[in-house]
Every structure is written in structure tokens, then in C-alpha cells.
Backbone:
């Protein structure tokens, strides 16, 4: 009788251990030790932070894939402490570097604010309109879609926007100062309009937040166009 109870007890213990191990393994499939719920194919501790190659490709050609899931525990929220933010200095550096690779563009200064990109550049192009369009679209490819981009092919404007490099969004009267410079830049070619609903600078026409959005095309007022002012 005692031997029978001992065998049954050992069997129950082994069963419970197996169930616990299965539960732990299943839990590991969903949650990493940190408690985050990111899942990727080639994970390197949660996600491909170091750019480990997918197959035989290089880091520059990798696709990016991340999957997030809510915790199944009611009231439990993931603690995201490393949310990416836009580094405006690096974005300005990237835009200037890319623009200097364009034909006939020799010197580029870029200012990135909280909602605008101002680019002044020196060029020896024979088609100012096309060059302005290339510079503008290069900048748009590097910033969030809500940004407006203004360009000026006047090297004297480089010193103008350089003055704002040490300012920030909380500087006194910064909106009025930036707006004055933008109005001056609009006297130069800005390239083609982006779509039927957007002008050349990416400003929406008759958008719902016209009253709070600091742009220069609210769908009503007529503004200066590059065709009207083509001289430096």
C-alpha cells in the first residue's frame, strides 16, 4: 500500500513539474525576461537592435519588422522607456548631406524646427525651378509628413537661417521670427506642388486646422509664387 502511494505521489509530482515546464515554455514564446512583448523573426534580445543581417544581406538592406502585443494581465501595461524621438540636428545634417549630392548644388544649410524645414543653398543650375523641386523633395523624404519645407537658392540666406541654429521652440517670439524668414524664402522657386490638395511646400489647402496650423496657404489668401518673383 505504501509503495503504491509512493508511486502515485512521484507520478503526480512529475506531472505537475511537466505542466509547469510547459507553461513556462509557452510563456517564453510570448514574453521575454524583460516582460516586453516584442516579437521578431531574427531577434537579438527582443529585437534587431544591432542590425544583425537577415540572411546574406547587409544591414542597410534589411527590412524592419516589430510586433507588439498587450499583456494578457488586466491592468498591466508595458513600460516603454526608449521611445524613438526625432533628432532635429541629425535630420538637418542628413538633409544637407543628401542635397549636396544633387547636381549643381554646391553649398547647403538646413534648419529643422518643430514643424518646418528651411533650406538655403548655393547653386549654378540653369533650371532653378527643377533644382528647387529636387532639394525640397529630398528634405521631405527625411522628415515626418506633417512638416513644411521652404527653400531658397540664395547663398545669402545661409547666414539668415544660421542665426537660428542655437534657438529652440521655446525661444521668445520664435514663431514670428521664423515666419519673417519663410516669407522671404517664398520669393524664390519652390518647385512643383506635391498634390492637388497640397502646395509646393506641403501645406494643405483648406485643411481643417487652418486656424492653428502655422502655414502660408489657407486656401483663401493669394501668396507670392516663384513665377511672379524669379529674381534673387
Residues:
Amino acid at each position: 500500500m505504501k509503495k503504491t502511494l509512493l508511486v502515485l505521489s512521484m507520478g503526480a509530482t512529475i506531472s505537475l513539474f511537466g505542466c509547469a515546464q510547459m507553461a513556462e515554455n509557452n510563456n517564453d514564446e510570448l514574453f521575454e525576461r524583460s516582460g516586453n512583448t516584442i516579437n521578431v523573426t531574427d531577434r537579438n534580445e527582443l529585437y534587431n537592435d544591432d542590425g544583425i543581417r537577415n540572411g546574406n544581406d547587409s544591414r542597410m538592406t534589411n527590412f524592419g519588422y516589430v510586433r507588439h502585443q498587450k499583456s494578457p494581465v488586466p491592468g498591466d501595461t508595458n513600460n516603454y522607456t526608449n521611445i524613438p524621438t526625432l533628432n532635429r540636428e541629425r535630420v538637418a545634417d542628413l538633409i544637407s548631406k543628401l542635397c549636396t549630392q544633387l547636381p549643381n548644388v554646391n553649398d547647403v544649410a538646413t534648419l529643422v524646427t518643430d514643424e518646418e524645414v528651411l533650406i538655403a543653398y548655393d547653386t549654378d543650375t540653369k533650371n532653378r525651378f527643377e533644382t528647387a523641386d529636387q532639394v525640397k523633395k529630398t528634405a521631405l523624404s527625411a522628415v515626418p509628413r506633417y512638416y513644411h519645407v521652404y527653400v531658397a537658392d540664395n547663398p545669402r540666406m545661409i547666414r539668415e537661417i544660421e542665426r537660428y541654429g542655437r534657438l529652440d521652440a521655446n525661444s521668445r517670439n520664435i514663431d514670428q521670427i521664423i515666419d519673417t524668414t519663410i516669407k522671404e524664402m517664398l520669393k524664390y522657386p519652390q518647385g512643383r506642388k506635391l498634390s492637388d490638395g497640397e502646395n509646393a511646400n506641403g501645406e494643405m489647402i483648406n485643411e481643417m486646422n487652418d486656424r492653428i496650423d502655422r502655414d502660408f496657404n489657407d486656401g483663401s489668401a493669394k501668396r507670392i509664387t516663384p513665377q511672379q518673383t524669379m529674381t534673387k
Remarks:
- Residues 2-30 form the longest helix (29 residues).
